[in-house]
Hints:
Number of helices: 15
Cofactor: Ca(2+)
GO molecular function: metal ion binding; sulfuric ester hydrolase activity
Radius of gyration: 22 Å
Strand order of the largest sheet: 9-8-5-4-10-1-11-12-2-13
Structural class: alpha/beta
Strand content: 15-25%
Family: Belongs to the sulfatase family.
Keywords: Calcium, Glycoprotein, Metal-binding, Signal
Oligomer: single chain
InterPro entries: Alkaline_phosphatase_core_sf, ARSB, Sulfatase_N
Number of strands: 18
Bound molecules: 2-acetamido-2-deoxy-beta-D-glucopyranose
Amino acid sequence: MLSRSQWLLIISCVLFCDLHKKIQCATGQPNVVFIVADDLGWNDVGFHGSNQIPTPNIDALAYNGIILNSHYGQSYGTPSRAALFTGKYPMKLGMQGPSITPGESRALPQGKLISEYFKEMGYATHLIGKWNLGYSRWNDTPTLRGFDHFLGLYNSFSSYYDYVTSWKFNGKDYGGFDLRRDTVPSWNDAGKYATDLFTEEAVDVIQKHNVNTPLFMMIAHLAVHIGNEGKWLEAPQETVNKFKHIRDPNRRTYAAMVSKLDDSIGAVFEALDAKNMLQNTIIVFISDNGAPTVGPSHNWGSNYPLRGIKDTLFEGGVRTVACIWSPLLVQSSRVSTDLIHITDWLPTLFTAVGGDLGVLDPDLDGIDQWSSLVYDLPSARNDIPLNIDEKTRNAALRFSYWKLIVGTSGNGSYNSYFGAPLNEDIDPQSYNTSAINDSPIGRIARKINYNPLSENDFEGLRNVATLKCLDAKAKRNPCDPASGAVCLYNIPNDPCEENDLAKFFPSVVRRIKRTLVDYRQGLIPQMEVTTDIDNADPKLYQYAWNPWRDCSDVSCSS
Ligand SMILES: *[C@@H]1O[C@H](CO)[C@@H](O)[C@H](O)[C@H]1NC(C)=O
Ligand SMILES: *[C@@H]1O[C@H](CO)[C@@H](O)[C@H](O)[C@H]1NC(C)=O
């Protein structure tokens, strides 16, 4: 017996084959390629309206798929990834606190991850790139948590060529190699630029893939996170040289890093095409959170005109770049403003591949959005608890078109606007739509679509996807929760969070506060940050970062 979602899959496949695309109808479970950028800014992709950093592949993917313009993650890496892998709100896992730093014992609690669900469905599962969900014990690491194969780093960052993670703790310096192929340090891969290395690995996985098995591949790029102190940003010089129009040398390097990321997505798409896998593949591209334009992990990315940066609950921290592409999407080439949260991917993709939702953990917070994506039906999600941090007392809830923020992260110094384009930059005056058509994804999309998008279509979609702040004459009362105020915004009208409406809508404030209190009931106190770095010191493990708490076990000395 086929389940309802399997029938839907077949029906949508038949529809798409007959009506929409030139490529053959695929049978079998769709492949899933999930690409996560790290700390990429809202304003750093072409399809959101900036001309400064051309991203023709990402734009082609977005225009031929669906631009998810109200996609929310958590405000920084570990909680976002925890939400993605588990389908649960981080506050339900005790993971609403800070990201996991090198030599820390915290890890994602045991419980089934997206990789394990896909593995049980018969998928070959690969993680390429960053983990950042704990590694103090082998059982915390990706190859013991549902991934058949892993090439990447355990920590939250490393340098881009030599894969060294340096960390200061209590005035002492720790440092070691952090690149692993499955369980073993991969010294031979050192020297190759991280984005290229991960791309080549992904292409290699695709080329060697046995097409009788469905593929689940997550590519969690290091880009565009910073590396180590003193060499924050790294990119090949020939790519940096393409951005002479950007005066700030750091921003110029950042642009090159984004450009390499764009090339990577194009190369993965080409490899899927060459292997005839595209017709039955779903590709998702998101950032884990907004860019940290300034502050501790500042990478010169820009969320402008959104307010705030990574680590704040303003839109610049949590509303992320996102799009989905697949021939299975019947209603594509549109901009969706339906609420979608990073926890939704697990049930959504599980349904997309014909899984039975009844099999999933009943405590899941994610909501299945598959049919709303495929057929452009209203989404079942009405609110998103963006976080409740019981220690800092910073919380925010998106509730229909409203958003309420209480408390602040840090001392409130990032609650304003950063990353506005600099006057001295001579940015390309126009958006090069023919470069989108000429990009690998643009070329392949034209080949496989009966009605390829025109350059005017690109402009039209981009115009819809570009946020418009309040007009110049509108009243402004920005509100700063750092002062103790409760701030309320109407996000569709005021995406830049410039005009607080709390005093005009006290009943809305009360209603949302009640919902926050309800969510608070399910909160598990956040795990203590337990740094154990002297035991984790890479010096003890041939200068590689390594699990250290169960070292009597297998591969400790590998
Ligand atoms: C707030 O924190 C930032 C960054 O840590 C620091 O530079 C600034 O001086 C602090 N401001 C106040 C008012 O404490
Ligand atoms: C736009 O892109 C096309 C194709 O990549 C290129 O040939 C052309 O020179 C670009 N135009 C401008 C103004 O940069």
